[in-house]
Amino acid sequence: MSHPKADTGSPEKKPAEEEAPRSAREIRLVMVGLVVTMLLAMLDGLIVGTAMPTIVGELGGAEHLSWVVTSYTLATAASTPIWGKLGDLYGRKGIFLTSIVIFLVGSALSGISQDMTELIGFRALQGLGAGGLMVGVMSIMGALVPPRDRGKYQGMFAAVMALATIGGPLVGGFITDHLNWRWTFYINLPLGAVALAVVVVTLKLPKVRNKARIDYLGALLLTTGITSLTLITTWGGQEYAWGSKQILGLTALAAATLIGFCYVEQRVKEPMLPLSLFRNLNFTLVSIIGFVVGFVMFGSTVFLPLYQQTVQGASATNSGLLLMPMMFGMLVISLVVGQAVTKTGKYRIYPIIGTIVMTAGLLLLSTLSTDTSGFASACWMVVLGAGMGFLMQITMLVAQNSVELKDMGVASSTATLFRTIGGSFGVALFGALFNSRVTETMNERLGSAAAAGGSQGGDPAQLSPAALKALPAPVQDAYHHAVANGMHTVFLWGAAVAVIAVAAAVFVREVPLRGAGTPPSDAEGGEGGAGGEGDAAGKVGKGRKGRKAAAADTIEASAI
What we know:
transmembrane; mainly alpha; about 550 residues
């Protein structure tokens, strides 16, 4: 059933002098604000996580500890697609600045919380703003920099990711030990002020006038569905058993709301997430790859430090440093790939290489044992990081190149959402597999009663390094083997999931990247835009009129 297209609210016609492409200097100035904002978004969770024991000690309410994280995660995931759509409808700059302000207000309020209930509520507000930070960064970069030139800048974002992963726990530990846990929230304020000032002064985007009605029903259904999925992955196997009525009820709710969402989106004039985007083969494929990358990355970053601390005896103090080999591989390859894409305009080979290398890294890590040296495990982490380095920015690049400029925000938010949901599922599934294998191995080596007694009556899969040292030597040895077996199971299953990404990457098509001031070539016809129609690429091949329209779209993309 076809429906009339909504008024997309095209930007007002700008004076000719404003239609020239941005200079490299202008773009670099804006990138300062975007990079600081991205750092702000990524550092928060890592810094706060380090301070959580101290926070609970002062505020009490340890039974609600998980909600400090869950409320933030839920708000972030649920708001991500909404921020993207609002940016498309009402202008990316204003919406982006709004998300930064909400994040900073939530940070300030979290810092003055007097009890756990207040902290949970303020963390939810902070998460609401955080949902727009990453989406805003990616969609604004997509509007400022043509896909062909984006490789010049993607190394910055890879570097920020590595810096945040390594430096976050270090900063959190320093603040907790030498200042006060409240500064884990207050530190966001000066960073956010810098980001706000830079974006306000340097970012110039055309004003958008759009009279389209917001898809409130679609937003409600999508938010409910995402919230249910996030709760399933957060609670499943932890708060509630996977077969409990709570998890089964959430599963039914997620299925019902997401089916209802798909039904509604096909009938509204301005859908919250246009399903037509998924008619584009490349967009669908890179969404699948992004899901798998999130699945692997978040699962790995949770369980690798556990192995290094318990089996290899690494210190937990500088936990961020334990992931440095993986971040190093990711950073170097991301820089090389970015420059290569900018130089050649070709990208199809990189998802294929990346997914294969990522799968190889997971297979290598599945061989971890009690005898594996730190050097060997570091080398295998480099391989895994290199695989992800081929994919982290390329997936976003291809997603943005597959849609019209007016859908840049929703494309960016969708790509981000798939990676986030993939990460949630990865941590949940890896956690269930790991816990099951550790418990099984402990029972095999010690017997069920001895294993339970050795772990002081608790879950043998949840021993901390400190608690482990207090146990008898035979129990420690059994636990070391149990963790190694758990890692084998986790990464073997991770490799099996990564094969899905390999299969998806093979079918990605080489659609020419839009370049600064260069209209798409005829080879793009029918593949460059959502559903193969409506964007610059879709207009190619329809005669002189179509070529003029394609060129106009490209000039607009370059100008803003």
